[in-house]
Amino acid sequence: MSAATTRSLLPGLGVSPVLLAIAGCALLVLPQLVVIITSIDPSPAAIFPPKGISFEWYANAFTRPAFREALLLSVIIATVTAAIATTIGTMAAVLVVRHRFVGRRALIAALQLPMLIPEVMLGLGFLILFSNVGMRATLFNIMLAHVVITMPFALRVIIANLQTVSVSIEEAAQVLGAGPITSFVRVTLPVIQSGVVSALIFSFIVSFDNFTVTAFLVTGRGTLPIEIYAYIRTESDPTIAAISTLLIAVSIVGILAIERILGIERLSRVEGTPL
Amino acid sequence: MPVKLSARLSLAAPALVLLALLALALSSLVASSFATGSAPWYAHYRKFLGEDVYVAYIVRSFRVAAWTTLFAVTIGYAIAYVMTRVPRTLRRLIVMVLVLQFFSVSITRIYSIILLLGNNGAVNRALLGSGVIDAPLRLIYNELGVVIGLVNAALPFAVFPILSVLERIPSSLREAAYTLGARRGTTFWHVTLPLSVPGIAASVVIVFLFSLGAFATPLLLGGGFVDLISVFSYEQAINFSNYGFAAAGAIVSTLLGLVLVYLFTVLVDRRVAAT
User: Per residue in B218-241, pLDDT tens?
Assistant: First the structure.
């Protein structure tokens, strides 16, 4: 092998890292592109490439009551979940970032535990727990499970944000006589506003997206991912492509928002577990 | 002005309530796997481990997880490696693509892979249209499809741990190797790769556990032919209300996965310490 080829190849594997990386990115991007293009396909068979342009599948997605109700249910669950998870995550983050105490690192690790446990175990565990104690309020059960799952994500965002904010302004407020709660609400909270907004978006998306745990707990009408699953098992028209395109758009807006207000890459720099 | 310890710790109280809920759910799961009525306490486990049909779920799950880990970590390494060597704008774009992947609704992401790789999918139609193949390739609804879907979902988890390690390798080390006459390939195998072992190990652990616990992907891309352990647990619990048996299967596979991961990290630590 000449020096010129060694330059571009991973020796021994015979594969250029650039080619591998391009293949990997293609595996990420191509499916999304195909979905977007299929969503405007007028033929009901969802065959790529489309023969024309039509928005009938978007209309179908919006007019089907099952999807409308599922979307509403998902939004309600995700909104309530995000609000609670962010509140709880923020409180815990303030403790572990601002205070030094014995077992602090263990607490940070423990609080992120739900991220590490397989979702099937969580879903099945909550299903068994709720049925053991006779809790049959499906909506409440799903929200409770979602809060447990999403809190670590909110926590990580707030920790990442708090680490960039100097502790001295809070100390200044407390030296000037503000109590811990006043100094938090009047001083810390405004400073970590961007983190709180990011945490809300983040936990909303994680809850909205959840399929596995919800699948174990759902009875009767499902959230949007559950209804989508039920639909693609029986139908093959591009209605789901239309819904997917809208969801991709919403995700992109959410990510750009987090990137603008916090910076996405900072999230992967929190001690404990990597993202 | 020092705040009382109790006041500080109360910040973590709601988060600890969530952890307690998690503990309750998991202990209900474990308890139900031992609740066998008149049969011996290990009856679910004996049945699960004693019949080939059930052991096959475990074997299949670990095989799929191993292939997924191999491909996702290799491609993830290439992406991370390329990210440290491209202009900032391109790097940010790749980060965005990876985060978008993480944020995409899992069900729609899987649906997009069906549109791309299904019998009527974009890839097969392109290949048929150009005359490369006569009959559609069976890319999904088999183990290959599940692995492709899992690699697609796991890439963000694979890239970020490796990226954070690669970034910490000082470029002076590579330059020193070049100065001493090493070629790029030699430098990669003898300098960059050994130094990135901790990142690779973290990535392997995360991707492996992620694939082992995956549920939606095998459910949809396996097409009923690639039932992994998570699908087993779901069907036992939801279709047959056989919570204890479902729990036993999930526990066996998770424990086995954790033991493997533990042995792997011990091995890696020993090798890293030796060099």
Answer: 999 988 878 899 999 999 999 999
Q: Which residues of A18-41 are buried (b: 16+ CB within 10 A; e: fewer)?
A: eebbeebbebbebbbbbbbbbbbb
**CA nearest neighbour of A90 among A13, A176, A199:** A199
Residues in chain A with CB shorter than 8 Å from the CB of B116 are: 30-31, 34, 48
B182, HSE (Cβ side, Cα atoms, 13 Å): 16
Read out DSSP for B65-120?
A: HHHHHHHHHHHHHHHHHHHTTS-HHHHHHHHHHHHHHHHS-HHHHHHHHHHHHSTT
- At A10, is the secondary structure helix, strand, or coil? strand
Touching A: B residues 169-208, CB under 8 Å? 183-186, 188-189, 202, 206
Q: Are B149 and B217 in contact (CB under 8 A)?
A: yes
Those residues whose C-beta lies under 8 Å from the C-beta of residue B19, and which sit 6 or more positions away, are A110, A111, A113
Judge contact between A218 and A8, C-beta under 8 A: no
Q: Both ends of chain A: CA-CA distance in Å?
A: 39
- B22 vs A110: CB contact, 8 Å cut-off? no
Amino acid identity, position A270: V
Mean pLDDT of A194-214: 91
CA distances from B120 to A7, B124, B135, B146, B202 (A): 40, 6, 11, 17, 38
pLDDT of residue A272: 41
Helices and strands, counts by H and E, chain A = 15, 0
The token pair that represents B92 in the structure block: 């940010």
Closest CA in chain A for residue B243 = A128
Q: Read off the pLDDT of residues B17-26 as tens digits, 9 standing for 90 and up.
A: 999 999 999 9
Contact of A254 with chain B, judged by CB distance below 8 Å, is answered with: yes
- Identify any residues that bridge with B178 across adjacent strands, giving them in sequence order: none
3-class secondary-structure state, position A137:
coil
* pTM for the full predicted model: 0.87
Asked if residue B192 lies in contact with residue B166, where contact means CB atoms within 8 angstroms, the answer is yes
Distance CA(B166)–CA(B169), nearest Å, equals 5
Give the Cβ contact number of residue A10 at 10 Å: 21
- The interface predicted TM-score of the complex, written ipTM, equals 0.88
Which candidate, A208, A218, A36, A55, places its Cα nearest to that of B111?
A36
Tally of CA atoms within 13 A in the half-sphere of B113 that contains its CB: 30
Q: Which one-letter amino acid corresponds to residue B95?
A: V
Distance CA A55, CA A53 (A): 7
| A62 reaches B (C-beta below 8 A) | no
Q: Give me the half-sphere count of Cα atoms (radius 13 Å) on the Cβ side of residue A181.
A: 3
